[in-house]
Every structure is written in structure tokens, then in C-alpha cells.
Amino acid sequence: MKYELRTYPLRCVGCLNCQLICSFLFEKAFNIFKARIVIDRLDGGSKIGFSDKCTRCGSCADYCLYGALEKVEEVSIQ
Amino acid sequence: MKIGGYAGSILCVNLSTGGIKKEPLDSDLACGFIGGFGINSKLGYDLIRPGTEPLSAENKIIIGAGPFVGTNIPAAARLCSLTKLPVNGAIGWSGGAGMNFGIMLKNAGYDHVVIEGHANKPVYLRIFDDDVEICDAGTLWGKGSGETVDELYTEYGRPLGVVSVGQAGEHLVKFSMAFVERCGTMGRGGLGAVFGSKNLKAIIARGTKGIRISERKRYRELVDHLYERMKGYPGLKGAHMYGFLNFMPAMPQEDYLELKKARIACVSCPIADKDLLQIKKGRFRGRSVYCSAAVNTLMPMMYGITNDYGESIKLFEDLDSYGLDQMEALELLKFADQLYKHGMLTEKELGTPGIKFEPDSVAEWLKKIAYREGFGDVLADGFGEVLKKYGEGIEEFAPLEVKGMIAYQGITSPIKADLFTTFEFGMAVHPKGPCAAPGGSSPLYFTRGRAIDWVAGHLDRMGVPKDAQERIFTPKDGMLLNVGRMEKYSQQSLFVVDMLGTCGRGQINRFYSNKVQGELYSAVTGFEMTGEELMKASERAFNLVKAANVREGFDRKDDRFPEGWFGEEKHKDYYENVEITKELAYGLLDDYYDERGWDVKTGIPTKAKLRELGLDYVISDAEQIGIRYA
Known about the structure:
By secondary structure, chain A is of the alpha+beta class. Chain A has helices spanning 17-27, 59-63, and strands spanning 2-7, 37-41, 46-50, 69-76. The longest helix of chain A has 11 residues, at 17-27.
């Protein structure tokens, strides 16, 4: 299932839970550099982006406890 | 054999020779001592020889991150450091800090880093996967701990793990600390000075190797369950809004919201207790300041130096930037002022007529301490040295001193606490001296006065055996709960956290029963281990560090309660039935030693206890230097 992912960069506190779960699911190891969601920390909030490999599975949003990521809508069913 | 959760190597760096070695992590060491605190304790015992001068090239800086660090186990970013502390000569460890450094170190391939020697010029250590280099710190030397982070971010970008020291560390201030990416503190008792003595300004780490889990399915089920529980935690929303103030309301929430610029989390933390504040009024208007928690920026206000948030936050920033332990620094200034007022220090010695407790004067004094200027040079050696230097009769002006540092939480301490819990008790018995996490996670102020049944339930969760609970709940001198006996398990429980690498905050600990810790450890590493076995490993590591301190001459005489706690105002026991007199406190100390299986007379482990823990070699090592365990 694919989701539209909405981002709220100012809510991001830099816990990197999104990158951790993404890499664990797709790369079988915790490695933030291999995550398909990209977090660039700023002094207050983060810049949030997604790589081309992102499948929009929405797991990153499931593990974000701060409301910086939201899977709002199913966009297609495979 | 590759163990899940571990990176698999120890990085050994000699700054004198420039030698860099990657040693494989021995699986017996990893399984017998476990993670940050456990492996640090064995490395420290083996590598720091008795009598080592803390500020010499021979002393070691040991930093480790446990098997949970780098995974998505909630709040698993904790680091653990160990060194011989300049402030009192104890072999002291600090759990804490967090931020990004631990995950980056682990991903670079190292569970621990051991640094010895002395560089012939200021350097920083760069650890980027297998590319490890001792780099010239030329432009960084002389900068504050936070400015150092900024410069390193500019040069290398983010994410980057950074441990840095400020000017106080460079000038060997004996109570200077190291800081992790501006928000995490590490090494009360002078880790900063040990960095300075080695000409080491910072350690940076970035790693891309990944951390693997042994039993993925089991792990996923356990961690998903933790996330579900955390999502349902009633305190979560408040924690996100108000940070640590949600649990410790030290300032009005509306004042905090005005100052709050952003919340900051250590990696994988669900509550984000670090803050970026912005001063909104006064001469420092617009200034942004990073802090370990907003509540900590209020200390200058608690000392009566100012009643203005902006002034208080700026002084806090100075303290962190220099790398000074704020409790020690402010209490030492109070002490010096008292000595002056009682004619024990002259204006000539002090350089000023007393010490004015107002912002500019205090700021000037902090600079003097950090740079060892004037009488600041004397204060920079800490309470223990000042007391020795000025001789008998001045102890009464340092009523909170224990092992050369101050017990900062207690009935007459800067952080006023009226109950005699494991936190206060721990200030006296922690081998390194008073610190932020001396006595662990047993009932504190958040659970004041709860019924015995509730406390027993809490002890069950901590993994305290039933026979020990019986002893803990056997009434003594009107006290329904024996805090001395409880202290042992409270420490053991906390140091399991330091082994594994999860956060020590009560708001996090509440989700990790001893049983859950065992299950998670087994799933992560692939080595089946119960919570009970983790508690045993924690006890083993604690006794080993205690033995390292016995070699340095520490025993019962050093486990003192602050004299200032036995004046007119006294603590009460947990149920507020009894005032804690000196006699009662030292009676509880006997019980603590007894519960630990130590010799009550000397306050050190017995042969039987060391053998039970598989530490037989400690007995023969000690005999070689003339120490005999009973």
C-alpha cells in the first residue's frame, strides 16, 4: 500500500526514528545513511525529504511520535 | 562470533605515539560485562593502573555505547565514559549525554574508544568508519564547547557525533566536563580536564556501517509493543509541549513557551527533553541557547544571582561554553565568599572585596575559574584541593562536600529535596562521588508516599528478589522502608540501563521492566539472558569499579553524608515518619554494605562476594599491592 506523506519540518526534533525504521525494514540493519527518508537537521526543526527509492510505505510516519510525518491518504493499491 | 547489537571493535588511540589500533571485541568480555558501563568497567580496571595521575598521559579516556545504541529501541542513545577523575582521584564513570555521538561511533564500527597519551599540540580525533585520524585542532583550541561543535558542523556537515570540551577543560579545571553536541553533559568530576591534559579538544564520529539485530522478528514484536505503550502514555503530549518541565514544574509553563525555540531529542528518544531556547527580553534579547533541559538554565536564579530569565540563561550558556560543572562552580563561589566574610580569605587573596552574586560579577568569576586567573586558579582545583590547601576549620563553609564535590540535591543542597531517598543516599556511596544519577530509579519525588504495595510492585519491575524486598520492608527505627538496602538494587537497576544504552530518565525507565530489558537484550544480541542475569552483570561491573577505587585508597571513610544535612533542617524518610539524623543515616549505610555483601567495617567488597561474581583475580591483584579483602 502506498501513502501520501505529509511533512511538518518544524515539529521534527531530530530523533531519527523515521530513518532508523526505514533502514531496518529495507536494508535489514539500522543505518540512517541508507534510509529512504532524508533528514537534514537545522537549528530548530529539520529539512525533510525522500529519496527516489522511497516506496511510500508510511512506516516512517508510524514511528514518528512528534507529528512531523503523517500518512494521510492511500493513493493507490498495488 | 558476531554478536547482534554490537559493532564488534574497540578503537585504541595513543595520542603520544599517534598509534591507532582496532581491536576486536572479545565475546566473553561483551557477554560477561555487557555494553557501555560493563565493558568500560573491565577496560578501566585493566588499563588504568593504581596510582595513575589523572592528568597524566597514562590516564585513559574510555567512552562506550551499549548494544541498544544505534537501534530504534526508544531512547537508546546513552553513552558511558570512564576515567580517573582529577577532582578526587576516583575511577569514575558517567552515564549520560546521548545525542548523535553513540549511534555514529557504533555505525563507524566501534563499541568503545580508549584514548591515552598526550598530543604534542592541540588535536581532535576524527572517526569516520575505518578512516581514523588525529587532526590538528589549531583553530578550535580556545573556543567554547558549543562553538567547537558549530565549527566542526561547518567543516564536516551533519549528521555528526561530537564530544567537545571548553576552555575550562583546556585549562585543566578539575571539575570541567565534556559536552555532547552542546546538549549532553558527560563526566562530572573532571573528564573535561582529562581531555585538556591530553591536548584533546574533541572527538567526532560518523559511521555508515549499520547495526544488525540477531532475532529480527522477536525484536520487532518487542519494540513495536514499546512504541504502542509510549503512544498511549498520558504524559507524552505534555512532554512534547513542555519538555522536562512537564515532570518538574520549575517555571510557569507560559514563561517556558515564550522562551522555547525548538525541542531537541537524542536519537530514538520519544520525549525530547533537550531545548533550544531564545531569550526574548533584556540585553541578551534574540540570543539562542542550547541546553540539556530548560530547567537547568534556572540554576543562577535558584542561587539568587538574578530573577531574569535572560540573564540566567546567559550565565548558563557561559558555564556550558567554558565546560564548567555549574553546581560546583556556583557553590565554590559561595564558599569563597563565606571564607572572605569570616576573615579566612583576605581581599588581596581573593582580588575583590567578597563575591557579588549578580550577573556581571558571576560571569567575570566564571571566566576567572575557566582560565585559572587570579583566585579563580585556586577555585579551579575544586573543593577537595581548596579544603586541603586552607586547612582545618574551613570545612564548615563547605557543608555539602563529599569526595571533593558537592551533594547538590538534598535538604540544604541547591536543589532542595526533603526526602531521604536512594538519590540522596547515593550521593554518599557512589564510588565517584555525588553525581546526577547516583542512586537510580527507586521511588523518588514523583511517587512520593505511595503505599508499600505499590513500591513492592515497582521493585518487582526493577527485578529486586523477594527475599531482598523482605529485608527492604522490615521496619527499622520507625522507617517502613530501608533505603540503605534498597540502594543496592536501585544502583544495579540504573547501571543495567548504562550497560544497555537506554536513557536513565524516570520517564523513559518506566517502560523498561527488568524482564523487558532481558528479552530485548536476548533478541538484539542473540544471547539468551534474563533480567536477573543482567542485574548480576551490573553487580559484577559495579564491584569491579569499586575494586578499582579500593586500589586508589577509597573505603568507608570516604562514603560520608554531607555534614550540612544534619543541622536544624533534616531529611525525612520516604513515608515522612522519621527525621534522618546522622546516627540513622550511618545505620542505613551499614545496611547498604551488608546488602551488597561487603565488609561493614571497611565498606569494601568481601572475598566471598568477589568470588561469587567471578572476580577472583581482583583478590590476587590487590594482595600484590598490599590490600587484603576480608
